[in-house]
């Protein structure tokens, strides 16, 4: 699953004012079972919310009713247990009657809601005459437009006029609402706009005020901005404090989604379960259960995923919701149920969007292919080809189905057509290599498998080893990377694997062939296997390298010392695996521990000749100022490997040559580094500095713009440390000082997967490489929390 996959949400809107109310002092004297967890005013009165064991929710509404002798009307709103609700309603009524201030409090709350109904965001025809209400109304209006996508986004140029309108509305709201509340809302709104630079600047001005506040909005804002700036420890601390303040389903959802964003699905899932328990039946309820299913799957909770997916199916109304439901059913391991949902979508929604129907049909065919129902998969693929004869995914699916059905030459022809239309279809290329291997054309198979760009996952590793061993017997089994193949064979065959999988050529090829057969028609990155009845289950197989990659990514949400310690344990348990040494050595280099990193890289290079041995040892040597040793190590690497375009050597070597003033030699390396990996931040920084040294101001500014687009947060930190002012365009020398400062903050990080800096407090900041719209979209989803706080502050400021 992709970490930040979007869910099919419906647009949020304001149905009417429902401000949260603080509990009055006299209510704190009520019996604990009658004290509500939350209070909200509405157009009828005040709603008291109660949470019973088992996440059962009860609501009691109280209002002024002068027709009654008590002048009070208390009623239970429909809930799970009518008898309990009736008793609770009576208890609330008794407590209100015994509280002399209750009637005045209820009347005041209703009066405030009446005033709020005069806001345009709640349907009023014109602006309020009250300047404070008018200012808040304008802010809520901006938030509504941002949520609907009318405002800024990273794909749009900044619109200063709209941002100025937001800032004017903030000024109009006045200080009566509190500096922290307005600052929180401003940061959240700017982030949701995609105006990242302004959000960072606003945070920089108000961070101390917000961090001194312990309200829900302040904690959420501090957590979000800490995460955006790579401050993992503070982000987690504030998110956990926010979770501890959860009162209702809305609170739980905001805290859960924040913890999910921070890479903590195990902590997020219980909160989202609370949110789902009080999600109601409206359009947004589907979204809540989708988010719960998604996070539960990430937390490896199949039972919870299954329950959430079942509720999604009950709530699904639109084709897109059925598609999302099928995916969550599949995540929970309910493949046949997912197929039934996809079939329902295709059958019952003939007028659904063409892309939705195509995706559903293709995913249904893929599932059938995985469980060896090649005839069913072929039928669906032919349906797609009847609509579009040049559909590459359908051609690939039909080609694989024919191959699995014993018609390999015909299947091969279709795979050739698919690759002619889409040469980037790696699954088609992998299947083509497998068929060629089975037909005995080992040279062609070897060429195809080496063209696959999504390597280093089990199916590719197994097939590549099989093809190479067929092409040159004993070549692969004598290679020191056979441990990777052996790991995959044993994961698939279990006790049926031979004691020594590389005992000889015949045993090795037979073992790989049997292992691949266990995968049925699945050659994707995420593997499944089918039993004799055709029932699928997920296979959790991680190659050693992939395991190392995932553990290194833990640095985004765990202390780096903990991650390095975990690597050390793996290295001790698996001494033959070099990745458990090279990946933590890279982390050490990012933190500036160059000598320690150099020793680890150099040791593993001479012991195993793994690629990152010479890359990392050379990089650490360069960072230690040992330029000649760095160049020597990179040259040694050429004796064992052909450099690949995407490797980091080009970035590090280009940096070394640039610093030595050898600009003509540095340029090809740095240009290739950014071309092969456009996300490689350190390469763009070096390219900007190279262009400055070459006197090319235009290309320098272009490179700086790429740096700022890739990582606005760290660029902002560098500008602060470089003490740059606001003039725009900045003079070239200022830009060079700014880029040099950022390069110093980056220490040894030239990654295209994670960005890190060492800040002024000598703390490591870590950010995964994600698209800016991840932060913008999260900002939009979280706006409701800050709107809630703003309305509560408005009511509190005037009562």
From TrEMBL:
| GO MF term set | transaminase activity
Mind telling me which InterPro entries this protein's record contains? TPR-like_helical_dom_sf, TPR_rpt
Pfam families per record: TPR_19
Q: Which UniProt keywords apply?
A: Aminotransferase, Transferase
Write the protein's name. Transcriptional regulator, GntR family domain / Aspartate aminotransferase
């Amino acid at each position: 699953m992709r970490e930040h996959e979007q869910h099919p949400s419906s647009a949020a809107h304001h149905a009417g004012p429902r401000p949260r109310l603080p509990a009055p002092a006299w209510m704190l004297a009520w019996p604990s079972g009658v004290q509500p967890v939350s209070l909200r005013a509405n157009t009828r009165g005040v709603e008291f919310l109660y949470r019973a064991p088992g996440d059962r929710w009860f609501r009691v509404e109280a209002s002024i009713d002068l027709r009654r002798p008590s002048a009070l009307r208390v009623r239970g709103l429909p809930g799970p247990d009518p008898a309990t609700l009736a008793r609770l309603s009576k208890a609330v009524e008794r407590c209100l009657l015994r509280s002399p201030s209750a009637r005045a409090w209820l009347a005041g709350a209703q009066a405030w809601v009446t005033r709020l109904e005069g806001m345009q965001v709640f349907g009023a025809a014109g602006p309020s005459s009250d300047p404070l209400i008018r200012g808040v109304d304008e802010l809520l209006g901006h938030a509504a437009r941002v949520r609907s996508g009318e405002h800024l986004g990273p794909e749009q140029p900044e619109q200063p006029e709209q941002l100025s309108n937001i800032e004017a509305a903030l000024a109009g709201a006045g200080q009566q609402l509190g500096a922290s509340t307005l600052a929180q809302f401003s940061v959240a709104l700017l982030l949701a706009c995609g105006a990242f630079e302004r959000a960072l600047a606003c945070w920089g001005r108000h961070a101390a005020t917000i961090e001194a506040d312990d309200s829900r909005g302040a904690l959420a804002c501090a957590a979000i901005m800490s995460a955006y700036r790579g401050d993992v420890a503070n982000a987690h601390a504030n998110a956990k404090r926010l979770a501890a303040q959860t009162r209702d389903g809305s609170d739980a959802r905001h805290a859960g989604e924040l913890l999910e964003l921070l890479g903590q699905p195990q902590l997020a899932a219980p909160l989202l379960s609370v949110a789902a328990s009080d999600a109601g039946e409206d359009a947004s309820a589907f979204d809540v259960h989708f988010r719960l299913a998604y996070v539960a799957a990430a937390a490896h909770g199949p039972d919870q995923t299954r329950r959430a997916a079942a509720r999604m199916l009950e709530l699904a109304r639109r084709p897109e919701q059925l598609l999302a439901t099928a995916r969550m059913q599949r995540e929970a391991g309910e493949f046949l149920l997912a197929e039934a949902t996809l079939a329902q979508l295709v059958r019952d929604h003939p007028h659904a969007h063409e892309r939705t129907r195509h995706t559903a049909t293709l995913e249904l065919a893929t599932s059938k292919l995985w469980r060896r129902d090649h005839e069913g998969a072929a039928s669906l693929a032919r349906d797609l080809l009847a609509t579009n004869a040049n559909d590459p995914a359908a051609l690939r699916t039909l080609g694989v189905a024919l191959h699995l059905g014993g018609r390999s030459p015909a299947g091969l022809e279709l795979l050739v057509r698919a690759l002619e239309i889409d040469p980037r279809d790696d699954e088609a290329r992998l299947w083509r290599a497998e068929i060629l291997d089975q037909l005995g054309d080992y040279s062609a198979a070897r060429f195809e498998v080496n063209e696959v760009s999504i390597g280093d996952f089990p199916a590719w590793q197994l097939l590549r080893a099989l093809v190479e061993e067929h092409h040159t017997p004993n070549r692969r089994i004598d290679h020191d990377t056979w441990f990777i193949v052996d790991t995959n064979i044993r994961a698939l065959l279990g006790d049926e694997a031979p004691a020594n999988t590389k005992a000889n050529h015949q045993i090795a090829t037979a073992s790989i062939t049997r292992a691949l057969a266990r995968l049925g028609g699945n050659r994707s990155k995420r593997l499944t296997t089918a039993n004799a009845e055709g029932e699928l289950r997920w296979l959790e197989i991680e190659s050693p390298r992939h395991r190392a990659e995932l553990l290194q990514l833990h640095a985004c949400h765990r202390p780096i010392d903990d991650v390095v310690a975990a690597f050390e344990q793996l290295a001790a348990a698996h001494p033959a695996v070099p990745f458990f040494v090279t990946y933590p050595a890279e982390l050490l280099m990012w933190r500036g521990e160059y000598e320690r990193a150099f020793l680890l890289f150099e040791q593993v290079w001479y012991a195993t000749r793994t690629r990152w041995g010479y890359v990392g040892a050379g990089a650490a040597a360069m960072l230690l100022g040992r330029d000649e040793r760095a160049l020597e190590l990179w040259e040694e690497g050429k004796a064992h490997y052909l450099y690949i375009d995407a490797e980091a050597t080009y970035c590090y070597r280009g940096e070394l040559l640039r610093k030595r003033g050898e600009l003509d030699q540095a340029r090809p390396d740095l240009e290739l580094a950014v071309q092969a990996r456009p996300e490689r931040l350190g390469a763009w920084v070096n390219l900007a500095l190279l262009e400055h040294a070459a006197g090319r101001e235009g290309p320098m500014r272009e490179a700086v713009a790429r740096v700022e687009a890739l990582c606005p947060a760290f660029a902002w930190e560098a500008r602060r440390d470089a003490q740059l002012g606001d003039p725009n365009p900045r003079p070239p020398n200022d830009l060079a000082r700014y880029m040099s400062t950022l390069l110093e903050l980056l220490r040894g990080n030239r990654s295209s997967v994670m960005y890190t800096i060492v800040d002024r407090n000598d703390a490591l900041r870590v950010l995964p490489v994600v698209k800016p719209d991840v932060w913008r979209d999260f900002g939009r989803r979280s706006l409701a929390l800050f709107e809630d706080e703003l309305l509560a502050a408005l009511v509190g400021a005037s009562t």
